[in-house]
Amino acid sequence: MSETIGKIVNFCIRNQKLGCLGGYNPSLLTQELSLIESEMLSCTECEGILRDPQHVDNGYRCKECMMDGEKGKLDETKSRLIGKLSAKCPFKEDGCEWEGTVATFLQHSETCNIIGIPCPYYSYGCNIVKTRKEMEKHEEQFLLIHLKMMKTRIDKIEREVRITGGIEWEIRGIKELVYRGGIQWSSCFYVGLYKFQISFQYEYENDPNYVGALIYLCNGDFDEGLEWPFCGKFTMEIVNKTDPSKSITYKFGTENGKIDAFLRPSNGDNGGFGCTDLASYEDLLLKSFSKDNSIILKVFIEHTPKWKRNYS
Ligand SMILES: [Zn+2]
Ligand SMILES: [Zn+2]
Ligand SMILES: [Zn+2]
Ligand SMILES: [Zn+2]
What we know:
By secondary structure, this protein is α+β, with helices and mostly antiparallel strands. The chain contains eight helices and 16 strands.
C-alpha cells in the first residue's frame, strides 16, 4: 500500500496558516450560498464563512479575525445558523463520503482518512502533513529528528535567557590593609533578580598569610518569588595588572544547591562562600597585582535555574 499523505484543509483563507481557525472554506458546503446568504454569513476580514461570528462596528468577523484590541459580541443566532448548514468532506472527490454539518466538521477532520493534520512538531520546524493515523507512525519514525529540532530550539532559548552578571571592584589601600588586617565589603549588586555582595578579607583564622574573597547573598527586593537555593557558577579573579593572562582565578559552582550560603537569606546573616586563600600576601604585594596600592577583583556570576540544570 502506498503511503497516504494527508491533505490540509485551508481552514484559514486569509493567511493559509496551519491550524488557524479563521473562516470556514466555502468548499465545505454541499450547496453554494446565494449572494445574499454569502453576504450575511461571510467574514469581512477573511471572506470565509464566519466561525464564532463576532458583531463589530462595521459588520461581522470570525473570532480569530478580530483586530488587536477590537471588542465584539458573539452572535449566537448566526453561529447556530452556520453550524446547521450541510457540509461535505472537502475531499469527496478523493473518496471520502462524509456528510454532515458545519458544526460537526471539525470532529470529522480528526478521523478523516484524507484530511491531513500538521505534525505536532511543526512549530519546531517539521513541515510534514499526514492523516491522524499516519501521524502516529510519523511521530515514531521521526523521534530523533524531532528531538534534534527541539534541542536546537532549547539551545536558542538558553542563550537568550542566560542570566549573568557580576562586579569589577577596585580595592584601594592594599598595603595598609594587609598590615592592619580586616574585611572590606563591595557595594551590593544584582545578577538577574538575586542580590549579592562580596567580602575581601585580609585576615583569616586558618590561613593568616592569605587573602580571600567570599560571596554573600543579600536580602533583595525580589527574594519572595525566586527559586531557592540559588544555583550557579562563580568565577573570582584578582587581575594581574601587567599581564592579565597571569591573573589569579578561582571557579566554583553550586549546582547541587547544598551550600548554606545560597539558601534564601533570612536576616542578611547568611554565611559567605568562596575562597579563603585566593592569594598570599607576598604574591599580592610583590607581583603585579597591587600596582598603585590597589587591586582589582572581578566576580562573575552565572545563574543556572532549575529548568536549565535539567536540560544540560
Ligand atoms: Zn487566519
Ligand atoms: Zn474571518
Ligand atoms: Zn473526509
Ligand atoms: Zn514531524
